[in-house]
Amino acid sequence: MDNSTVNKLLANHHHLTDEQDQMINGIEQFAIKHLHDDQKSVYVIYGDAGTGKSVILSQLFYDFQQMAAQKNGPLAETKNYFLVNHPEILKVYKQIAGAESHVLKKNFNRPTSFINQMTKNDTQADITVIDEAHLLLSRRDAYNNFYQDNQLTEIIKRSQITILVFDHRQVLRTKSFWTTNRLKKLIAPYTVGEYHLTHQFRMNASDQLVKWINTLTDGTLTSLPNDLGAGYDFRIFDDAEKMRQLVVKRNQEVGLSRIVSTSGYPSTLDGGKHYIVEGNFKMPWDQYNYTQTPWAELPETINEVGSMFTCQGFDLNYVGVILGPPIKIDDQNHLYVDLSKFTDVESLKKRKDISDPKEFAQIKQTLVLNSVNVLMKRGVKGLYVFAHDEKLRNRLEQIWHQHQDA
Q1: Quick one: which of 316, 184, 201, 315 has its CA closest to 251?
Q2: Which domains can be identified in the chain, with CATH numbers?
Q3: What is the pLDDT of residue 320?
Q4: Dihedral over alpha carbons 359, 361, 364, 369 (to 10 degrees)
């Protein structure tokens, strides 16, 4: 079995649906039509995790680069760039570069590097493609050497055509805070096209189970649907160690199976090991990955717990998700976040432009529950769930037994 993310994104490995083919053609025509306009143009692809956004973008960029190499074509000699604000995903795209004609490593970059290079050289891109645009910084961030107000604004300034994918449920940090309304307001002055992806490609789960996950991470625990998906292995665990043992077994069978967790356990960026302990379960957080291979594809990471920062955007065959101490439930079956137990404080730093304490508190709740959504949608073949909080664990166990008895 080939579990390589690189091969999943290589253009010549794509088996596109008719809808995807038509969509890609439509976006290419949009770019050709508006390439020489006086006005900047923006095209947004909306879609939940697993709806094929990255596959579509990689095919689009491949096509653009082939057309740029044609001497007399409508995109001849265009200068095009591919941006992603996620170091693990950027590694994958850089590996693709060179494996496909006219797709080069220099075409792929982090947003801040692109903005700074274009500014320094006083140049403009013709077409800029942005994967995971919900990770773009929406405020100044000196830590990332970004000193303007919004990365998307700066990218659009330096590009004739900007094409991006966006998922409001994958917004995870206040410094990258976005909503669909905020995005639409920012791009309103430009020529805008959009497409909404709805079909789930990653998970073999039923549409009803995907909807259940969305409802859960929007804040409400409901009964499980009757149909979980033909052959999709969904389970609730009351023992994290038993869940780990099954994930290890699945990894031996088909590979690419990992344990992941929300925040709420000791963790610092000091290079040391920090452990997640749940009864007999004890595993360290993921270590900084200095290799060019994505974290999930390193064999030794079966012995680590992944975070949303190492797993976002990647497929796993089976995923075991730990809902850490901050994730709780009230008597009305509403999920909420106990922020006093949240340990990734860097993700939820204050913003000067959001002054209402109630609004900011709700934003923080949403961002943490978004991280649960991201983690629960990693598994292609199966999803296993364990909750630290006893009340939530018991309630999940209850609906699990109700489903099995139905």
Answers
A1: 316
A2: 5-196 (3.40.50.300), 207-405 (no CATH)
A3: 98
A4: -100
